[in-house]
Amino acid sequence: MAQTAALRIDPAPPALPDAAILAATSAIADGPLAAAAARIDHGEYPLPLMADLGAAGALGAHLKGNGSRFGLAISAMETASRACGATGFLMWAHDVCGLYLDQSGNPALEGAMLEDHAAGRSFGGTALSNPMKAFSGIEPMLLRARKVAGGYVVRGALPWVSHIGRGQYCGAIAAVEGVGGSVSHEIMFLLRCDDRAELRPCPVFSGMEGTSTWGIRLDDYFVPADDLIADPARPFIARIKGAFILLQTGMALGVSAGAIASMREVEGPLGHVNQFLDDQPDDLEAELADLRAGILALAETPFETSKDYLLSVLDARAQGAEFTLRATQAALLHQGARGYLASAGPQRRIREAHFVAIVTPAIKHLRWEMARLSRDVMPGGAA
Amino acid sequence: MSALPEPTDGLGPWRQYLCRACGLVYDEGEGDLDGGLPPGTRFEDIPEDWVCPVCGVSKADFEPYAGPRVAPVAVAPSVRPRRAGLVIVGAGIAGWNVAEAIRALDGAVPVTLVSACAGDAYHKPELSVAMGRGLTPERLVKETGHEKAARLGVRLMAQTFAVGLDPARRRLRTTRGTVPFTRLVLAQGAAPVLPACLPPDLCWRINSLDAWRALHGALKPASRIAILGAGMVGCELADDLARAGHAVTLLDRTALPLGAVLPETAARRLAARFAQAGIGFFGGVEVRGLSRADGALALETSAGTFAADQVVSAIGLATESRLARTAGLAFAGGIAVDPATLQTSAPGIHALGDCVSIAGAPCRFIEPIARQAQVIAHALLDMPCAPYAHVTPVIRLKTRALPLVIEGEMTGEGDWRVLRDDAEHLEMERWRGGTRLARLAA
Questions:
Q1: Is the pLDDT at B2 greater than 60, yes or no?
Q2: Cβ(A156)–Cβ(A143) under 8 Å?
Q3: What is d(CA A156, CA A215) in angstroms, rounded to the nearest whole number?
Q4: Cα A353 to Cα A348: distance, rounded to the nearest angstrom
Q5: Which residues of A touch B52 (CB under 8 A)?
Q6: Per-residue pLDDT reduced to its tens digit, B84-129
Q7: Chain B residues with beta carbon closer than 8 angstroms to that of A314
Q8: Right CATH number for B192-316 from 3.50.50.60, 3.40.50.300, 3.30.365.10, 3.40.50.1100?
Q9: DSSP classification of residue A31
Q10: What is the pTM of this model?
């Protein structure tokens, strides 16, 4: 080990230590983000606040150049999600987009492009909901690619892709078709939302409307080799899958922590009746601490690909979603009418919790995937 | 449920189309009024600029819809208990034994049984002799999981995997939801070990009815079968498959079949009987890899390449450790249990059968299971019961080429003495000092 450590070229020491990043993130979360949460819920896309989070180091801690601090990235997301779940989701989309660029091995994507992205000077999300489900056998792949000189052309449509807009970008995957329409493999690429990509407005959701979520339509969109993240895509996805899912748990931790805090807010005036409710803040706090500890332990080895590790990641993500549903429900019961006001945090967090539970991978997808991984592989496809 | 009664355009009944992006179903009879399509608009007649009313993708992303994808049977139609009750993980002999033992003592306590398979009850040792007897999967099932659950009044969660356990909060996480429990019993069995050089999609492991059923379905008359590992399971399978008319090759690292367990005299006798039964045994062989070429399997070994139609690995069993380990349960080659109470290191959680280790050693035989289930059922219901006393069981090897009975500790210090060795019988005993440690009869 000592020899390996001696031979390793250590990355430059992180410019910002963990405590500084978390303190700056807290200052944003507790100040301007908390004040904007209701507006973001109803449709305000908080790009200026995302830029502040980027400048604070909260969007790039997990990248190689910053010491691959995945636990810190999750903690930063938790901190922001305490104030606003939609912003936590934007951070996740931004973080995984950064992860794609960082792990691409493509110099055209790793340099200035990644630096701007990590620092919150440019913005982009992820369009992997459909491909992730396609790789698990849940639904067919929607984007189709064809090899041409110097790259690929892609066509097809994706519903609801978040954290994109004109001039932004996202990671996407398309199935490569040969002559006759048979699929040879998949490519992963950086989809630039310039005028070649048609962005269509989505129907209005019940909350989290400030995530800048669009339908994308591509018609012979050219992907140059410089924009390829992975070709083929499957080995790349297998390598980053644990990190991709694990990073999402920051949302669950934060929305739950926000819910518990709102229970404590009313302990003084309402504690005498709230004691009769099933879930009490101390119990939830202890459970949240256990959940967080488990997640941060998993975040120590984000690129592990063993079956046991992936099962634990999927289990933690599902546990986080279930816990968030319970904690936010409990918070509304504790707060009563004041939490039910249209401007109140507890009712907003209930919708945020439902989002955590249904965004890909949703609880049902996580369970599907855990069942798939748990089944024995046998000859002839028997299981 | 179309809005229009019947189409009159002569193009057949109204059809449905599924949005591949969001799952919305377009029904020709209903149309999409908000999108400008009156009821009765055929899919072909939808303009190309029409988009899915939910997610906005285009007509090209729709496909004909033939109704729901059939979901496998999940949960027996028993009443879901309103309160947390006893939960058992595993519907093998051990799990069902505990359920039976509980019901014999208490008809009312809620019991939930979580099973990775259908939960059908069968006698696992029969799997090693079933081919030779011409049995079918249907005949091996004594009672379906559904029937058994209904008869015992337990809730069966079939095709459900236990994925996480919180001993402090008494919650079991499964692939069909989180199940609270008052007491938990782990009876999850052990899984065959597969060497990394053998791809799981090319190599069978026979440790469940499902696996046996699949192998049974894949076998053609007079198949060439290579079996890796000449332990008890490997020897029994080799004997059984040869008896069923297949060309069996049995390979092991040791020089003789059951060479790690039997004294040499007995192992040689078994090797001779295998040879008479047409089983090709190759000892001292290391496996290197397995691949498919020209419709057959090629098994690479230190003794050359063996061609086979099917390859079965029987090199050993191991308890899956993730569930116990992540829950913080003590684990030592199996889930460590107290030798008298069979409780794990966590209060309220017991374990039995193939998944446990007692004093650091697993014991994967049928005989102790019924006694273990009795002790656990009493403990779960807070009823008094004599403690479990572990005794190494008598082992009967069901190889018809040479049936063997083994009693006592087979390996360790001491000397084997031959009491009888003739054409019909072999009898041996292992002694140390003035004590007989083991006995063998063939």
A1: no
A2: yes
A3: 11
A4: 9
A5: 159
A6: 899 999 999 999 999 999 999 999 999 999 999 999 999 888 898 8
A7: 163
A8: 3.50.50.60
A9: I
A10: 0.91
Q: Which structure tokens are listed for B260?
A: 């790690």
SS3 B177: strand
Residue that is written with structure tokens 């899958």 in the block: A241
Q: Could you tell me the residue ranges of all domains in chain B?
A: 16-65, 77-190+319-380, 192-316, 395-441
A18-123 has CATH 1.10.540.10 classification: yes
**Gap from A365 CA to chain B (nearest CA, Å):** 10
Which residues of B touch chain A, with CB atoms under 8 Å apart?
20-22, 51-58, 60-61, 116, 159-161, 163-164, 166, 169, 173, 175-178, 191, 200-205, 210-211, 214, 217-218, 310, 322, 326
Distant-in-sequence contacts of A297-300, Cβ < 8 A, 24+ apart: A298/A242, A298/A246, A299/A70, A299/A71, A299/A74, A299/A246, A300/A70, A300/A71
Query: How far away is chain B from the Cα of A16, in angstroms, using its nearest Cα?
Result: 33
Inter-chain CB proximity A315 and B20 less than 8 Å:
no
Q: Tell whether A158 is within 8 A of chain B (Cβ).
A: yes
What SS3 string covers B183-223? Answer: EEEECCCCEECCCCCCCCCCEECCCCHHHHHHHHHHCCCCC
User: A236-374: what CATH class?
Assistant: mainly alpha
Q: For A377, which of B166, B175, B201 is closest by C-beta distance?
A: B201
- The domains of chain A are located at 18-123, 125-232, 236-374
| Confidence label for B82 from pLDDT (cuts 50, 70 and 90) | low
Of A312, A370, A378, the CB nearest to B211: A378
CB B22 to CB A159 under 8 A?
Answer: yes
- Shortest Cα distance, chain B CAs vs residue A368, angstroms: 7
Which tens digits make up the pLDDT trace of B224-269? 999 999 999 999 999 999 999 999 999 999 999 999 889 999 999 9
- Domain B16-65 listed as CATH 2.20.28.10: yes
Chain B residue nearest residue A311, CA to CA: B163
Note which residues in 175-204 of chain A have CB less than 8 A from chain B: 200-203
Confirm or reject contact between A229 and chain B (CB < 8 A).
no
Instruction: State whether B56 and A202 contact (CB < 8 Å).
Output: yes
Q: Which pLDDT band holds residue A6 (cuts at 50, 70, 90)?
A: very low
**With contacts defined as CB-CB under 8 Å, which chain B residues touch A376?**
191, 200, 205, 211
CB atoms under 10 Å from CB of B428, counted, come to 20
Topology match between the domains B16-65 and B77-190+319-380? no
CATH 2.40.110.10 assigned to A125-232: yes
CA nearest to B328 within chain A:
A294
CA distance A243 to chain B (A): 19
Count the Cβ atoms, other than its own, within 10 Å of residue B296. Answer: 12
User: What is the CATH superfamily name and number for domain B77-190+319-380?
Assistant: FAD/NAD(P)-binding domain (3.50.50.60)
